[in-house]
Amino acid sequence: MALPRIGVLALQGAVDLHVHALERLGVETVEVRRAEHLARVDGLVLPGGESSTISKLLVINELFDPLAERLAVGMPAFGTCAGMIMLASEILDGRDDQLSFGAIDISVRRNAFGRQIDSFETDLNVIGLAEAPVHAVFIRAPSVERVGPGVEILAAVEEGRPVACRQGQVLVTSFHPELSPDLRLHELFIKGMAA
To answer: For the CA atoms of 95, 101, 102, 104, what is the dihedral angle to 10 degrees?
Structure first.
């Protein structure tokens, strides 16, 4: 079976690190900045960054509606940090003009773990990755405050707060897996695309 072609939303955030992780797994990648780029991919990674800025840039670049349409018909997506916020069905403390795609039935709170100075790292047990914990880097990370009935919680921090979830072919994390040499979450996303 051929590997899928995966796009990385390239408007802001850790684009290069996600591209590098996917390429290390042998996946052809496309940096998605316009609708014609989106049309060439089988799935999309939405990286971290600043979610309200990403929301504005999607509209400015006439990419929000085409991406919303692709997600609505089941395009696989992997959102990390701000990408999680963009894919959520509800943003609890977003700007009035901030948009999200509703691709996964969760409610998220931006910067829920604190400001930049409160960033932290921890090891997480992730369902489906039993061989060893995942080292997770949290930077101004969102928190999942509500999980819909069709959402699987893959990992939570000590307080029981979900930080990795999956619904169908949509995978989201509060943390930044691209900041680790561990490629298992990117692999999990790719394997989920074939399901």
So the answer is: -110
DSSP-derived pairing of the beta strands 77-80 and 170-173:
parallel
pLDDT tens-digit map of 55-95: 899 999 999 999 999 999 999 999 999 999 999 999 997 67
- CA angle (142 as vertex; 25, 153 as ends), nearest 5: 65
What are the residue boundaries of the structural domains of the chain, listed by start? Answer: 6-193
Query: Stretch 102-122: mean pLDDT, rounded?
Result: 82
The predicted model scores a pTM of: 0.94
Length of the chain in residues, anyone?
Answer: 195
Q: Which CATH architecture has domain 6-193?
A: 3-Layer(aba) Sandwich (3.40)
Q: 42: which residues sit within 8 A by CB, 6+ positions away?
A: 4, 5, 6, 75, 76, 193
Q: Which two structure tokens, joined as six digits, stand for 161?
A: 């707060």
Task: Provide the annotated active-site residues.
Answer: 81, 176, 178
Mean pLDDT of 134-138: 93
Helix axes 184-193, 15-24, angle to 10 degrees: 70
